[in-house]
Amino acid sequence: MTVRFSKVAAFALVAATLSIPVVHSHGDVSPQAVDTEGLDPLPEEIALENPYRLAGGEQYELAIKVGASGYNSNCARCHGLEAISGGIAPDLRMLEDGEFGDEWYMERVLNGYSQNGAYKMPPFAELLSQEAMWAIRSYTETRPKPE
Length: 147
Ligand code: HEC
What we know:
This protein has helices at residues 2-18, 51-55, 57-74, 76-79, 98-111, 130-142, and strands at 113-115, 118-121. The longest helix has 18 residues, at 57-74. It is mainly α. Bound molecules: heme C (HEC). Heme C is lined by residues 74-75, 77-79, 89-90, 92, 95, 105, 108-109, 113, 120-121, 124, 136.
């Protein structure tokens, strides 16, 4: 009886050990989750134009705030702090305003950019929510452009 019981206990212990999630470490390339609470959820289909800019008002204000932190944790190491490029990657303040800039922005963020088979910029399609991507666009498009 006691033997059986301890076998069960041992099995449970092994099972518990195996179910511990494996922690993947990617050093500083690990994407940071962006807390988009409060932003209007978006449909699965990717919008062609920044939905938070179109919504305006408090949604846009919040998107800019959420985007600032999302930008700092996911994009700043290449595109520069406060969206001011240090030369490693393009200055995102220089993207075109409006729908044309939105489209180009989304294309790059979803697919990244690779050259000779190596990613210079990782694709973010699987890493960030659409809400987070548009929040980051809201932030970069409202940073004052350089003189
Ligand atoms: C590992 C470095 C790296 C990271 C991280 C990175 N990028 Fe990039 N990004 C690049 C490089 C390099 C290019 C230039 C590619 C090219 O020549 O078009 C680029 C290009 C872009 C472009 C096109 C700019 C233009 O002027 O054509 C956009 C938009 C962009 N990135 C947005 C982002 C956003 C938003 C993030 C964060 C979610 C991000 N990137 C994270 C390296 C990076």
